[in-house]
Structures are given as C-alpha cells and as structure tokens.
Design a protein that fits this description.
Stress up-regulated Nod 19; transmembrane helix; signal; 10-stranded mixed beta sheet; alpha+beta; 5 helices
Amino acid sequence: MALCSQGGLLLFAMLILAFDVSGTLASPEIGNQIKSATFLSPEFVLGPGSVEDRYYSNIDFPRGHVGIKSFKAEVVDDIGNPIPLHETYLHHWVVAKYYQRQGMAENNDKHKFQPSDYLFAGNSGICQGNVLGQYFGLGSETRKTDTHVPNPYAIEIGNPDEVPEGYEEKWLLNVHAIDTRGAVDRLGCTECRCDLYNITVDQHGQPLRPGYIGGLRCCYDQTQCKVQQGYGGARRSLYLRYTVEWVDWDCSIIPVKIFIFDVTDTGKRLNGSTGVGPENGCQVEYNVESCSSANAASDGCIDAKRTSLTMPISGYVIYGVAHQHTGGAGSTLYGEDGRVICTSEPIYGTGKDVGDEAGYIVGMSTCYPEPGSIQITAGENLLLESNYNSTQKHTGVMGLFYILVADRTPNPTNFLHSTIHIHKNIKVSTPAVAIVALFGLAMAIAVGLLSRMKKGREEGYQPIMA
C-alpha cells in the first residue's frame, strides 16, 4: 500500500506540473504588459492649397529594447481635433530608424552634417538603397487600417547589440500632407498633377524629365496647388498625432522582419545606385491611363500592374497590407506556385465625417494568416499585382505591399523560443531545461513527501494517503 501511495504521489505531482506546462503551451502569449503612448509631431502650418513634406529627426518614440505591437496616426489641429481628408489630405507618413553619432546636436534639417554622422537602418525590403526603407508608414487609409502585430510576435527595436559603436538609435518622421480647401481640382491636387502646381523643376531645381505630368516631384514641401480665385481660408497649425503600443523585450517574443514590395520595381540595380531613376529598381509611383471604350467592355476599366520579386529569405507571413491611392481596387501578393499570400482591398468612405470621407480610401483590409500556414522560401519568385480603376487617368499612384515575416512559429510547441511558466516563480525557455526542470521539481516534491512518510512510520504515524 505504501508503494502505491508513493507512486500515486509522484504521478499526482507530475500531472499537476504537466497540466500547467501544457496550458501555457496551448496559448503562447507575451507575458509583458502592453504599454502605450501618444505623441505629436512638430507643428506644421498649412493654408489652402499648400503642401507639407518635411523630415523631422529624433522624434518622440519608445526607448530601450522593446517590441512594437502597433502604430496608429492621424492629422489633428492645435487643440487635438482630427482633420478630415477633404480638408487636409494625408498623402503619406513614414517613420524610419537611423543611428546618429553620439554627442551631436539636433538641428532638424537646419544644418547639413557629414554623411558619416548618420547611418540609415532600413527594413528588410528589397528596394535599392534607402528607397522605401521605413519601418512604419501609411497614407489616407491610416485611420481604418489595422496595424497590430499578433502575439507572440513583435517588431524588435532598441537592441543594443545592433547599434554600431559610437552611435545611438533614433527615429525619423516624414509627413506629406496637402491642404485641399478651396482647390480648383481636389483630386488633381492629391495626385500632384504638375500643371495644377505650376511646377517645371523638382525640389533640387532640376528640370522634370520629359513626360512627367504628376507625382511626388511636383508636390514637394512649400509648393502650392491652384485654388479658387478669392477663396479666403485661413492658415492653421497642424500635427501628426501618433500612438505607439509596445512591450518590453524578452525571450518569449518572436521577432519579425519588415518587407515592403513595390509594383514598380524593375529589378534593376544600376552600378550600386541608391536613388530613384526611370530604369533603377523601385520607382515608388506610377500613372494609370484612362481606359478606352473597348477596354471598358472587356475588363471593366481595371488597370492591372504586375511585377516579379525574389524573396531573399525564408519565413512565415504573419501580417500583410497594401498601400494604394484614390482609384485603387485592391492588391494581391502571390507565391511562385500561384497561391495567394495576401489580398488587401481598399475601404472607401461614404460620408463627410472624419474616417468616412466620401471618395477617399480610409482603410485597407489586412491579412493575419494562421501561424505557419503561409510560408515563403528563400529565392522564391513572388508576383505582386496592383489594380486601379481606370475610368479616369490617375497620376502619382502607388502600389506598395507590406508584409511581416517571422523565421519560426509558436506551433505546435515552441519550447525553443517561448517562455514556459512551470511555477509562478520558475521560468524555463528550452525543451531540455523544461524537461529537466519538470522532472526535477516533481522528484523533489516526491522525495520530500516520501521522506516525511518514512519519518512518520518511524514515529508510529500512518501517511494520510496510505
């Protein structure tokens, strides 16, 4: 009877521990509490038809070794009221990481530093140089696009092992906003048509290339779109208000890499060039020609632009979303075998309220595949397709696709990379350690109980469970 009782005690202890461990493994989550903070960009002032397109260095951002879980943004006025897109169009905003030499003063574009004083830290995307190298960024669709990174994943920042010696990690913000109050052609202003801006040279004073009729080169900072004669709208102070959620980094988090693909990518990289040129890599923007009556009958006036891209690494897709402008009809990223990796479609507003502005893209649908269900292999040729409604001509549109890729998944059991809570004061993080800790703790409990029972028998007592 005593032997059965001892075995029962050992089995009971091990069952309790096994239950605790299996419960933790079934629902892998980040144990850290999610933190949140809301920041404001530096002030920018816009009047009817004017443009803001500036870069702000060393912006407010979470510090330390953390994992970003979401990033939301919108344009607000000086008392915090959200601004509708039909007044101030948010063409895009991007946030990028860079390293700055320690001990330097902050001047926010007021002074030119030596290139060696800054090191740009781009994402994992495949465009040339620093083109589309941002970590975060959207446009008019900001308010209704889901940006959260599901557990147990996060975007890792602030890792001290990645910061070059003598530098410190900082963040850069670019806001491109266009005030369309009183505009003669509101859509034309948001699509940066050069004739509406009366622009013949780019921001560097160089003549526009032949045939360039609209896009970023015609609506740079301090340019002016044509407004109705006599329109008297006032200038006003605006800000990009952005909210970041994050967790402190620990071994339970699986890091993700950020990839941004561009449907205009030619695949060419000319002599190590990092800039944007007609034949060099990612062009960022393109024009959509209006369809003919014959095309309208055959394809319903949909312009489908496609490009082939080569994935540099293997991994699992855990998030995907496209970025398009007005006229966008959705975008899809396909695998080499034709499987759909992610389809992202625009959400158009239908009213006048903030977040529901008629005729504007106010959100993009997102993809959250089941962990491990969508895998991409290194060297795989992907196909990116961007569709636009071409019942009318569009200039300076974009066909970008963001995906987050993890090198592993938490399923079926992610012992190697998930923290396992065996007891409230004991944590293990590898299968070997987990098994040893589990067995060791069970044995310790059993040995203790056996010792107490033996002592009890010696003193004339019978164990309770005998």
